[in-house]
Fold each of these.
Amino acid sequence: MAIPVVDPERYDEQLAAKRDRLETQFARFSVPELEVYPSPPSHYRQRCEFRLWHEGDDLYYVMFENDPQDPNRKVPVRVDQFAVASQRINDLMPALLDAIRDNPVLRRKLFQVEFLTTLSGDALVTLVYHRPLDEDWERDARKLEAVLDVMIIGRSRKQRIVLTRDHVWEQLEVDGRVLHYQQVENSFTQPNARICMSMLSWARDVTTGSQERDLVELYCGNGNFTIALADNFRRVLATEISRTSVSSARLNIERNGTDNVYVARMSAEDFSAALKGDKKGRRVDEMDLESYDFSTVLVDPPRAGLDASSCAQISGYERIVYVSCNPDTLAENLEQLTRTHQVMRFALFDQFPFTDHCECGVLLQRR
């Protein structure tokens, strides 16, 4: 992995290269004109983590790159400022080091720092240690919270000390409405908040005209898409396997005053079996599947994409909204999905500028 080299003057050039790559890669699916959503060219990432390097009295952050001479070896690269990260993270990076450099309680065996920030400037900092944390650590860490105006979590083996709280509240403006999202430390959230707003607005646009029918969502996470799309549908049934994400999703639904969503803690595979009638039990009964009239399925799978059975299952819906973080597995899945569905909309969301990463959105309609 290479650390992105941010050059705002070349942003349009790198975005055009991604556009050309996707248009070539997906031409065989007869896709419509690609919709392109640019990112801020710098300071776009709201969460980052760094290893911490101790060299005598010096203390600094590092990230790792592949060794060009040995692809199996990683080499540390010093990082004093990180143009990829939010301005709040860049401001905190030197301030944190200055505050702990001469404090043996906070510095000793500290090996990793994780930052989670919001567009409004809230910040959660996780300090990860190779030693047990005690009352002296907690005392000095609370002072550090006040000095930096952040929330702090301490981690070590079998320890997690939350001083104030373990989450931030992000506010995203989508189509004139402000949506509130709890984002928990060490759980998945969309890292580029500006692009996330674009993704949510696009997903709302492609699912208009569905108020009389229902949406089913797989891999719903903390309810990111769920909440934004809820008023486009009569009802929404969302599924997620992560206990932390399900808890956040339910809290976010309540915080946003959404009253037509049910979140079930269940894997996509188990949910597929439940739809077929092959899985029974309390969780299945609570979903009351027979009461739904699904017109649309939304999937936002991991980088590995969907397996063949999951593709077959979602092919049963009239409309598929597929959000992908990996164009290669998306293309593999479209080989199967386009046997029954036609690509109606195709979008590029530049989630990670100056990297090879492409985030895509696809709307498919049954032929």
Amino acid sequence: MRVLRLLAAVTASPRLLGARPPGPASPAAPVRVSPDSLSGAGGTAPAPDRPGPRARLRAWAELLRVSALFTVPGDALAGAASVGRRPGRGTALAVGASLCLYEAGMALNDWADREEDAVDRPHRPIPSGRVTPGAALAAAATLTAAGLALAARAGRPALAVASGLAATVWAYDLHLKHTKLGPAAMASARALDVVLGAAATAAPSTAPPAPRTAAARPAPSSALPAALALGAHTYAVTAVSRHEARGGSTAAPLAALAGAAALAGSVLRGGPAPGESSRTPAATEGLLLTAFTGAYLRTSAVPLLHAALNPSPPLTQRAVGGGIRAMIPLQAALATRAGAPLNGLAVMGLVPLARALARKVSPT
């Protein structure tokens, strides 16, 4: 009998069997990550398992928002068309520099927002522990240096513009994004990217002049109308993006919608390419210009209208994503308006790639 009583006592005692008693220390209790562990001031982000190569690659793809990369090359091609020259070595260097500086801004953005994202977007690569803050900052610095090095190979004017672009990107991510100057800083960065393509393409010995401009070589300032158009669109998209985490703004999507309509109208009414005051656009160019402008308006306006009617975070984020993708047909329209329909067609060829990748990695 004593043996039976002893066995019953052992079975009834969870501590003697090594079981953990239920309560607040249960493994089911949620674990919160302290912002201190993300800032480097103290603590370590939990990393129970080392992710595999595919998981690390996806984390970096999310950090750098690679689906938005396809909106970058069109800046240089629109800038090249604005100065009346065919894309050449300088244009390719400008595209490479722009891609590096764009991705530097993405990495720096998440590094600067790591504590805010720990509350509003805990799934992002840094707060989730998939990318360390130090690695993101190192990537931003390395990509910035690479972008400036590529721009330097395109000539001093290109390097000067790229330096201003890099300074604008870092100033926006580290401070200006949380001020009223945030949208203006982003608009300036996109406009400078167009001017970078123009400066690199117009540099001596980078590309032969097109036959229609053999008598004159416009200065990079000829790209200002296209730069201002893309800058205006970027300003509107950035103003909407300031509400994508919490939603609730109807005014921003409505203002962006009105701006998109006005911008589309100005592109269709735009004058001839630089140095082409007497040139009548060909019928094919006119059709392409109308098609590209219509694609821009459709891509940007529809999600903006939905966000204005229901300013929820998901619809606001969709409007921001549509605004980012709409830059591609806008760049194509601006290149075509400048008399370079082949540049426009090349830019539009990026749309299917951007759309396919956006289904896997969000551009916002």
